[in-house]
Amino acid sequence: MADRFDVLEAEALDRLSRDQEHIAGLHKRMRYLGVAIVTKAEGEINEMHIGLGGTMSALFLRQLAPKAHRGLEGRVKAGKSAGGISYGYRLDR
What we know:
The chain is mostly helical. The chain has a domain at 7-67. It has helices at residues 13-16, 20-33, 47-77; strands spanning 7-10, 36-39, 43-44. The chain has a three-stranded mixed beta sheet with strand order 1-2-3. Helix 2 (20-33) runs antiparallel to helix 3 (47-77). The longest helix is centred in the middle third of the chain and has 31 residues, at 47-77. It is elongated, with a radius of gyration of 19 Å. The chain starts with 6 loop residues before the first strand and ends in a 16-residue tail after the last helix. The model has no long low-confidence stretch (mean pLDDT 87).
């Protein structure tokens, strides 16, 4: 196969996915194809990285949502916008 590759490289495992099921499936498919997953942060990824890293990433996402909502609520209570400026528009005060 001319389009085959041997290594999937990323900055960190969470840059590929923070979803446990997705990252486990990706690792399984890459291992079946003989493709190593290597990250700058963790090195070569194995089952331990998938199990522990996937769990930590899932917990991070679960904890992130309430923090983001609290931050947006604080902006609204301060009389500020909770959203960004839409593409193509500019702020006219």
